[in-house]
Write a structure and sequence with these properties.
C8orf32 fold; 12 helices
Length: 393
């Protein structure tokens, strides 16, 4: 029995909403923006006609840019705008080649970019070689970590028999920035689609860092009746070499932290370091969504701020979470920090003055409560710990 399916391999929590209403003006603005941006990559896109990975690299920034450009010009919910841009891009791509773009969740100013390219099966699926069930090297567990890819805690389970173990296997490959990899799943195969969805949900909950650094890609599997062979192709916002450079840079930063600081002082040190050394910039030299752009180019957007803050605070031993939500109609990302047994919000992006003012640090979003943050931030509160009743004193 053979099943060929291209599936959504990542998405923002809650999924992409259903488009309820579109205005003719919004559609026109989106279409015009897409056509304008697509003209800049026409020749490259033609050369990449039979290279889905390269097509993805070309179209990903176009999608991000158009959502960012149009968001302030139309009165639409975030999910509606994302779906509208996705559908219009789908129509353009259909006219150029036999491929289908699926639902996409991307970002506006504050960048939580995720995109997925679903490529039609043309000419059938290449037959896999039959093989014995692989005994994977490594242990049966992955050390729990909400963020880090800066050590060797990710190990490949010996056998993949559950959605959690499948999530562990994904974390293993993604922590190494493997662009193409295969996984053999020997658990129940009657609803592998649901197993995959659960695996990605587990990955997001347990290894948010590797989850956020992947831009998506394509996935296909074959059900052999007793086991499933899964093949995954991913694109990333960073490279393995950049990851190694980040690891070394984080170590140096941590070594420079004064000895004897308590947890509050560590959080303040990290907040100040990120703000003082970063300028908000969507058009950064490197991908603005990454700690690499923050730590080596001193620029980026909220996802880069939040992931960098997460890495640094985890390295100091302070319990930290990455949180995604919205400010108005724009996507945003920040952190939760645990001090003295209670959680508090820390938004290093919004603590950084815009336009950038060197030497100045804000504290309006430094260790604040749910009640304080609700004034201008929204998030899926049931997914994250409840904070202390008041701001940290």
């Amino acid at each position: 029995m053979e099943i060929i399916m291209y599936i959504l391999i990542m998405g923002l929590s809650g999924g992409v909403g259903v488009l309820l209403l579109r205005t003719g003006r919004a559609t026109r603005l989106v279409r015009q923006a897409l056509q304008r941006e697509m003209r800049t990559i026409n020749d490259e896109l033609k050369r990449a006609e039979h290279n889905p990975a390269r097509q993805f690299e070309l179209l990903d920034p176009i999608y991000r840019k158009v959502v960012f450009q149009v968001r302030s010009k139309v009165k639409m919910k975030r999910t509606e705008l994302e779906q509208l841009v996705s559908d219009e891009l789908n129509q353009i791509i259909k006219c150029r080649r036999s491929a289908v773009w699926s639902s996409v969740a991307v970002t506006g100013r504050n960048v939580l970019a995720l995109i997925m390219l679903v490529v039609s099966a043309v000419g059938g699926y290449a037959t896999y070689q039959e093989a014995k069930i692989i005994e994977w090297p490594g242990s049966q567990q992955v050390v729990s970590s909400s963020a880090t890819i800066l050590d060797d805690t990710f190990e490949l389970p010996r056998q993949i028999t559950s959605s959690e173990e499948l999530g562990m296997a994904l974390a293993y490959h993604m922590s190494r920035f493997d662009e193409s990899f295969q996984i053999r799943y020997i658990g129940k195969t009657n609803d592998f689609d649901e197993t995959m969805e659960s695996a990605w949900a587990w990955l997001e909950a347990n290894h948010i860092y590797v989850f956020r650094l992947s831009r998506g890609g394509e996935s296909q599997y074959r059900d052999h009746g007793g086991y499933v062979d899964l093949e995954v192709n991913l694109a990333y916002d960073m490279t393995t070499e950049e990851s190694h450079q980040i690891a070394a840079r984080v170590e140096r930063i941590i070594q420079e932290i004064p000895i004897g600081l308590n947890d509050y002082e560590k959080v303040k040190y990290v907040n100040d370091f990120v703000v003082l050394n970063t300028a908000y910039n969507l058009d950064s030299t490197a991908s603005p969504y990454t700690p690499y752009s923050i730590l080596f180019n001193g620029e980026g957007v909220c996802e880069g701020y939040a992931l960098t803050t997460l890495l640094l605070l985890e390295k100091t031993g302070v319990e930290t979470r990455y949180i995604s939500g919205e400010v108005g109609t724009e996507l945003h990302a920040w952190n939760l920090v645990k001090l003295d047994g209670d959680w508090y919000h820390l938004d290093t992006t919004w603590n950084d003055p815009v336009p950038n003012r060197p030497g100045e640090v804000g504290y309006d979003y430094f260790l604040v409560s749910d009640a304080t943050l609700r004034a201008d931030h929204t998030w899926e509160e049931g997914k994250y710990p409840v904070t202390a009743v008041g701001d940290y004193k």
